[in-house]
Amino acid sequence: MSRTALIENVTAMLQDAGFLVSERCAIRPKSFDVAARRGEELVLLKVLGNVDAFDAATGQEMRRLGEYLSATPMVVGMRTRDEELKPEVVYFRHGVPAIHPDTAFDLFVEDVPPLIYAAPAASTSTSTASCSPRPVRPRTGASGSSPRSWASPAAPSRSTRTG
User: Fold this and answer.
1) What is the pTM of this model?
2) Between residues 92 and 142, the one the model is more confident about
3) How many CB atoms neighbour CB 52 within 10 A?
4) Whose CA is closest to 63, among 48, 55, 74?
């Protein structure tokens, strides 16, 4: 899908979710593509096919604008150079959340927040995820399972399991 088509799809999705969406920002340098407001909620979106194209300077500018405007900066994209972005996962690029369009739909239209937050690990072939243990903690004792038994199939190190 072309970047223009992706921006149009994201814009239509935001409008369907009740957002008032700006015209596409065409002034250079541009840190975001569209701004969207719903009530007091303001989102600044950069829409990219490959989220690896999002550089540190743009991330810093989006974070700064977000702070000044009381807005949430966000990147919506399809892939990295190595793999497709997974729905229901929030990635981070230069301190800005990056999500798949399906995750944006879940968040803005269905009002369902993502479940997994992932950040690059030391190696480019691995990534880390942080999940809240609260929903599963009461169930571990009754079933005899433990966080270690749940983590074993993924083969993380002990320091990864314990934080």
Assistant:
1) 0.71
2) 92
3) 14
4) 74
